Amino acid sequence: MTERETEGRVAVVTGAGRGIGRAIAFALAAEGWAVVANDLGAGPAGGGTDAGPAEEVAGKIRAEGGRALASTADITDSAAAAELVRSAVTEFGRLDGVVNCAGILRDTIFHKMAEEDWDSVLTVHLKGSFNVSRAAAEVFRNQSSGAFVHMTSTAGLIGNLAQANYSAAKSGIVGLSRSIALDMARYHVRSNAIAPFAWSRLIDTLPENTPEEKARVARMKRMTPEQIAPLVVYLLGDDAGEVSGQVFVVRGNEVMLMSQPRPLRTMARNDGWTPQLLADHFGPAVRSSLVPLETSPQVFSYDPV
Ligand SMILES: NC(=O)c1ccc[n+]([C@@H]2O[C@H](COP(=O)([O-])OP(=O)(O)OC[C@H]3O[C@@H](n4cnc5c(N)ncnc54)[C@H](O)[C@@H]3O)[C@@H](O)[C@H]2O)c1
């Protein structure tokens, strides 16, 4: 799409004050989108508020001749999320795109994970993405147009150590995105998910104890939020009009379409199964097809392109 075609389009970007959301807000503004830059200004593990990041991003877009509004709405609060969406329509007259990018981390090995670590991560990522999407769905349905992009993670798609809360939330976001895509296709509304890799203050919390962990952080530092933004802008625009319910990965200059679960091997018996029959026949038949117990850093161990 040309800048002229996207002129007048309006997006809400959550978590737009820092990291990936910030780069997405600037990239959309550069293409002529009006942007509601939402960011609570929370700490990396949640908690705390700071209007500075959202205001800085909105101010910078306006200073460069664009249209932007800052929002410090806490997306975990459904009323605040609804007000965030309303503010886009009130200020700019419509809403065309929603980018769910706000996030926090509370990494702990599973057998030590506190209920509070589970609740806070699930609430910000999964419920927050639901709250904003649900409010925007009303607008999109009435307009019969609109597009969502949600941030998932390879921690959810593949797995990672000490991130049960985050992995569950990010897997949940894939289910949310796909469900929105299915339910809202009749209104020409699209929904896609991206698992990004980018150096940000969120990744600054990654452990650097072992040589492998140090190498992983060094690799992460070579990947930037600015490399994520073009795919988001493309997915929100009409050029991606046939793309919905998909999961992508961006890693440096590499863009990937991910597979989604489908039956891999099937066996059926007219008389049904017993545990022993499964052990004797099904187990050996699928053994070579079992997915290895790998983490995301093990799968993505090569240097970024
Ligand atoms: N950086 C990566 O490599 C990476 C990898 C996989 C997934 N992601 C995902 O990408 C998204 C952006 O991550 P990032 O690395 O840019 O992190 P970041 O910490 O730089 O930015 C996240 C922003 O979300 C805001 N936020 C937190 N809670 C909020 C709330 N309740 N309401 C509104 N705003 C809130 C924070 O204030 C922060 O500015 C997250 O969803 C993250 O899980 C990032």
Any idea what the radius of gyration is?
Answer: 20 Å
The count of strands amounts to 8
Overall morphology = globular
Small molecules bound: nicotinamide-adenine-dinucleotide
Query: Within the CATH hierarchy, at the fold level, what is the topology?
Result: Rossmann fold
**Helix share of residues?**
40-55%
Uncertain ranges: none
* Separate helix tally: 11
At CATH's second level, what is the architecture?
3-Layer(aba) Sandwich
Strand order of the largest sheet: 3-2-1-4-5-6-7-8
Identify the CATH class: Alpha Beta
Number of domains: 1
Residue-averaged pLDDT: 96
Q: Hey, roughly how much beta strand do the residues contain?
A: 5-15%
Q: Assign the CATH superfamily.
A: NAD(P)-binding Rossmann-like Domain
N-to-C series of helices and strands: HEHEHEHEHEHHEHHEEHH
Derived from helix and strand composition plus strand pairing, the structural class reads: alpha/beta
Overview of the structural elements:
The chain contains eleven helices and eight strands. It is an alpha/beta fold. The chain has a single domain (3-260), classed as NAD(P)-binding Rossmann-like Domain (Rossmann fold, 3-Layer(aba) Sandwich), CATH 3.40.50.720. Strands 3-2-1-4-5-6-7-8 form an eight-stranded mixed sheet, sandwiched between helices. Helix 5 links the parallel strand 4 (97-100) and strand 5. The two termini are 26 Å apart. The chain binds nicotinamide-adenine-dinucleotide (NAD). The site of nicotinamide-adenine-dinucleotide has 34 residues, from helix 2, helix 5 and strand 6.
